[in-house]
Amino acid sequence: MFNVIYQPFLLDLTNSLFITGVLVTLGSIMQFLPMPLVGKLSDRLGHKNTILTSIPLYILGLVLIFISDSNNILYLIFGIVVYYLGFTINNMNAQFLVAENSESSKGLMYGLIFFSFFIGSIGGNIFVIFGQSISTRVFFLIFMGILIVEGLIFTFFLSNKWREQKADALLNEDLQVKKEQTWLKFFKDPRMRSILIFFTLDIFVYGISLSIYTGGLSDYYHLTTEEISFIIVWMNITNMLFQIPAGRITDKLGKKNSLILSAITGLCFYIINIIASILWSNGMTFVLIPSLVAAHIIFAFSMITFIPSEQIILTDLGKNNKAESYGVVSFMRGVAFIPTSIIGALLIENVHYLAPFIVTSIGIIVEIWFLFKFFHE
User: Fold this and answer.
1) Nearest to 250 by CA among 192, 204, 313, 190
2) Does domain 183-374 have CATH number 3.30.450.40?
3) Domain 2-171, CATH
4) Cα–Cα distance measured from residue 298 to residue 217, given in angstroms and rounded to the nearest whole number
5) Can you give the residue ranges of every domain in the chain?
6) For residue 95, which of 256, 316, 261, 244 has the smallest C-alpha distance?
7) Which of 17, 96, 302, 327 has the fewest Cβ atoms surrounding its Cβ within 10 A?
8) Percentage with pLDDT > 70 across the chain
9) Helix (H, G, I), strand (E, B) or coil at 283
């Protein structure tokens, strides 16, 4: 619900696409910049205790955005910073709470979590559609109420195994070895180094094409918003229906094989896009929409086989300081994503619409090679 109304709300308030873009970028930066510090705080306080601090930050950010207007842009800026700080704290610690409360079937549990995520995404869109007569700011109040309920659920229904796990880790730790800085572990430990390189490379490779993908559909094919929504909704439906089976597949195949399967289906998505574009440019325009729908359904399988493996790996980086390690990887991924939209736009403008897709396809082939050579279960 919030994601649907957020950018139109900013545009109405600022009356400037440029300022809206700057504010959206500010929110994106806040989703990765504080990650290492948030991880360090989580390791010290525990994931449940840390996630509870996100609720008041969420609500304070929403209140500041709610009361801002064209004369109070500073309230808006501060509100965005605080809101996305709450989002970062919430999102990271939520992944650890899932891992801690799911015993051995982590893949299945992440499947259930992301199944509910897509249900919520579809429900939020429908709610906004049927609530067209409601003032945009009322949605903020509804969201605040939902966040309060979320805080109560965290407080009373989730356990916190952090202290127990930390005690076990300290008992197993070699007392003669001094605790190393988390950043150094990524350079010294081959496993952690491979994980950091792969996930950073992955977001960079996919970001080159996906960061400008929707805009490209509109600019190159002149598709309407309704047509683009129709194409993307098939991906969301597929994500929703197959998220739980994909979690079971991850538990059975293992994380490495699931990531390889994700890369192969991701490569198929780009191959179909390239073929559809060639056919469309040769006058076979009728194949475009069906081809893009098929491509997005296949891409959904790439996502649902990637997400459980990704979260299982990133919530289990080493014996100690797991949250801080998660934060380091998230920070590096955020930095890698920053130039992708610029690279993608330059490739389209100076080479061809298909250039980002070809670059990403080559990058995915490199990823598959990297997984076979450097990843181990």
Assistant:
1) 313
2) no
3) 1.20.1250.20
4) 18
5) 2-171, 183-374
6) 316
7) 17
8) 90
9) coil
The more confident residue out of 152 and 117 is 152
Q: Which residue has the tokens 């090679």?
A: 369
* Mean model confidence pLDDT for the chain: 82
- Three-state SS for 154? helix
- CA 39, CA 332: separation in Å to the nearest integer? 14
> Residue 161 is which amino acid?
K
Q: Which sign, positive or negative, has the C-alpha torsion 198, 24, 80, 150? A: negative
Mean pLDDT of 96-106: 73
What span, in angstroms and rounded, lies between the C-alpha atoms of 136 and 2? 10
Interior angle at CA 216, CA 210 and CA 221, nearest 5: 140
Report DSSP letters for 83-144, one per residue: HHHHHHHHHHHHHHHHHHTSTT-HHHHHHHHHHHHHHHHHHHHHHHHHTTTS-HHHHHHHHH
Residue 273 tokens, joined:
């896009």
- How many Cβ atoms are within 10 Å of 205's Cβ, its own excluded? 23
Cβ neighbours of residue 55 under 8 Å, at least 6 residues apart? 86, 90, 147, 148, 150, 151, 154
Instruction: Pull the structure tokens for residue 232.
Output: 């993307």
pTM score > 0.90 for this model? Answer: no
CB 317 within 8 A of CB 329: yes
Q: How many CB atoms lie within 10 A of CB 185?
A: 21
Angle at 247 between CA 266 and CA 340, to 5 degrees: 35
Distance CA 122, CA 105 (A): 26
Evaluate whether 2-171 and 183-374 have a shared fold.
Answer: yes
**Residues listed for the chain:** 377
